[in-house]
Amino acid sequence: MIIVREMLAIVLINGSSMAPTLQSGERVLAWTPFSKWFFRRGNIVTLRHFPIRLTDKQRSQPRYRAAVAVIERDPPEILIKRLVGLPGDTVRVSLAQLSSHTLTTVDPQAIRQGDNLLWHAPAGHVFVRGDGQVSNDSVAWGPIPFAKLNQIVLCRFPSFQRIS
Questions:
Q1: SS3 call for 132
Q2: Which of 6, 76, 128, 130 has the fewest CB atoms found within 10 Å of its own CB?
Q3: Distances in whole angstroms, Cα of residue 123 to Cα of each of 87, 88, 107, 145
Q4: Alpha helices in 38-123 (DSSP H)
Q5: Secondary structure of residue 90 in the 3-state scheme
C-alpha cells in the first residue's frame, strides 16, 4: 500500500494568538516534512488536535476550562504556534510577557524561579508558544508530544489587510 501525504497546504489564520506576526484572515503556506529533524526552534508550526491531560478536578476549575475548550473542539482545528523548545530543553518564560488571562491558566507543572516560569521538555515533547500576549499554548498545556507537530510554515501570502 502506498500512502501519499499532502506535502504543501494553504492554512487560513483564525485568531490572534500569533499576532503581530500573523493576523487573523491571512493565509500561509505550510510544508509537511518527511522527518522530525526538520523542525527547529523558532519555526512557526501547525499542530494536530491533541487531548489535554488534566484530572477531573483540574478540568472543573474555571482557570482550565478555556484552554480545554480551545483544544477539544469538534471538528478539531489546526493550531499555529512557534516552536520554542525541543526535547531536553528547559524553557524560560518571563512573567512580564504573560497577560493576566494567561497567568490564570498556567500549567501546574511550571516551576517558578523569581520572575520567570520554567518548564523542562522531556524526551519526545516540545514547547510551543503563540507570538501574541494572549495565547493558549504550552504555558497552559505544558510540553506537548513531538508527534503532534504537523507542518512548518514556509511563508505568508501577501495580504491586502497589511497594506491598508
A1: coil
A2: 6
A3: 5, 6, 18, 9
A4: 56-60, 62-71, 100-103
A5: strand
- How many other C-beta atoms lie within 10 A of the C-beta of residue 142? 20
What are 39's three cell numbers? 523542525
Q: Fold for 8-163, please state it.
A: Umud Fragment, subunit A (2.10.109)
Q: Are strands 79-85 and 44-47 parallel, antiparallel or unpaired?
A: antiparallel
CA proximity to 82, closest of 113, 49, 109, 47: 47
Maximal C-alpha separation, the chain: 55
Q: Which long-range contacts (CB under 8 A, 24 or more apart) does 56-59 make?
A: 58/108
Question: What residues are paired with 11 via a beta bridge?
Answer: 28
| Environment class of 44 (CB within 10 Å of its CB; exposed 0-12, middle 13-18, buried 19+) | buried
Please give the Cα distance from 129 to 66 (Å, whole number).
Answer: 16
- Structure confidence by residue, pLDDT tens digits, 130-144: 998 888 899 999 999
Span 53-89, pLDDT tens digits: 555 665 555 555 444 544 554 545 789 999 999 999 9
